[in-house]
Amino acid sequence: MTLVGPVMTSPLLYPLLAGLCSLDGVLPMIPSEAAVLASGVFAHSGTPSVVLVVLATALGVFVGDHLAYGLSRSVLGPRLINRSRHVSRAVAAAGRQLDRRTGLLIVMSRFLPGGRVTMNLACGTARLPLARFSPASAVAAVAWAAYTAGLGFVGGAAFVENPLLGLGVGLGLSFAFGGLIELVRRRISNRKPHPGHPAETLPARAG
């Protein structure tokens, strides 16, 4: 925390947050969430500004979303996606759901582990028009930025004497919330009838 302190009071923090969140759109191993949470923890003391933290983060997320979207529509996109069977399956599964509630899916994916990159790649692969992708991406970026910085801010308020503990609590709550959304999503998916289920085959046979 001694090393992080000077960064949090520097004007360079805001472009740093924007850059990290942009790169995180194509390189998920970058710890942008931890950086935003830490900024929120320190923002409780008045420096940095929590409003500027949210704006810089949202801008970075929005740009990162479009980097992944553009990459998936490029010549290199399919090659990179198909290099990993897990990624290709996840992108294909997300793409099949884009015809229904596109905006809601894009927003919800920001709160799922790995969901942001997968959904953005799926939108690009499916050739979703920017007129539909960009507004949903903007809403998702602002929502995630406010949520993540807010968790850090609350953690900083609750653990004034120990900012590191506030950061840890913020990370824990973020993971728990993402896991809860994923659990709800899986339960909803499991309730849907599968191909070959009697509920689907009966009308065809009756006809």
TrEMBL record:
TM annotation in the entry: 12-30, 50-71, 136-158, 164-184
Q: Which Pfam families match?
A: VTT_dom
InterPro entries per the record?
A: DedA_domain, VTT_dom
Q: Which residues form the VTT domain?
A: 30-152
Q: Does the keyword Protein biosynthesis apply?
A: no
* Protein family: Belongs to the DedA family.
Task: Tell me the protein's name.
Answer: Membrane protein
Which organism encodes this protein?
Answer: Actinoplanes auranticolor
